[in-house]
């Protein structure tokens, strides 16, 4: 079921959003069949990439994380994605009334989960953490995620495309604020001494 919807979102997103909406999935099913599986891709890829290959700045030796440090980061990364999808779903549900949408929380979480699919999948690039390569591959994935949001909101929330555009823009704004807040929390943790350990 996951593969079918993932493939459909890339081949014919509008038709697939209709199929996802009509499926009326619960939050539990969405997590066990989609989110928890796909969120493993970036978490495991990041763990392998940072411990086995590392990254280079300039002409120096690759910088790698210790297994323990990378393991802790991978687990926190995975949990952040799991919580992040639910949080975005809850925000979509909370904002729905403003835009004339009355979809249940489960449908909003499903919308957030399938919208994030390209970002989960492109997480495979973290196996080889090279900044320029990650940017070249990551920007189109991010753009397609935004496209899925704008096509999915009117269908999943049962509103017109005009309202859907405004609603999607508001969701995108909330997502950007949440991302900046996550970066700020990371910087604070590093400042307090909770930082990664590098191999010597």
| Cα distance spanning the termini | 45 Å
What is the element string, with H for helices and E for strands? Answer: HHHHHHHHH
Largest β sheet strand count, sense and barrel closure: none
Shape: elongated
Beta-strand residue fraction: under 5%
Overall helicity: over 70%
Structural class: mainly alpha
Radius of gyration: 18 Å
Provide structural commentary:
The protein has one domain (2-191). The protein contains nine helices and no strands. The protein has 200 residues and is an all-alpha fold. The N and C termini lie far apart (45 Å). It has helices spanning 2-11, 13-23, 27-38, 40-53, 67-96, 105-115, 117-122, 131-157, 161-191.
Name a few traits of the molecule.
about 200 residues, mainly alpha
Question: How is this fold's topology laid out?
Answer:
Elements: H1 2-11, H2 13-23, H3 27-38, H4 40-53, H5 67-96, H6 105-115, H7 117-122, H8 131-157, H9 161-191
Helix pairs in contact: 1-2, 2-8, 3-6, 4-5, 5-6, 5-9, 6-8, 8-9
How would you concisely characterize the structure shown here?
This protein is mainly alpha-helical and 200 residues long. The protein is 76% helix and 0% strand. It has helices at 2-11, 13-23, 27-38, 40-53, 67-96, 105-115, 117-122, 131-157, 161-191.
